[in-house]
Write a structure and sequence with these properties.
The chain is mainly beta. Helices cover about 10% and strands about 30% of the residues. It has one helix at about 65-70; strands at about 15-20, 25-35, 40-50. Strand 2 and strand 3 (about 40-50) form a beta hairpin.
Length: about 80
Amino acid sequence: MNVPAAAEEPVEEPAATLTPYPDGPLVLRGDFEIRSVDGACIESGRTVALCRCGRSAVKPFCDGSHKIARALGGARTRTSPRD
């Protein structure tokens, strides 16, 4: 008895991707909205860099402060819970 092969489901691209850069920001690409705690949209778009080091003057966005901290011998930004 022949059983027909299951039809392959099409693979959908994610609406957005989040990429952690070593010693740098999280880069969010795609279709997204970033909202404040009260629900107001503070950013929407295609690409933003989000601060991970805590030194940015424009949080939650990255302003490159991690580069200065690293040049001055600051601590490395964690890239995963195992770092």
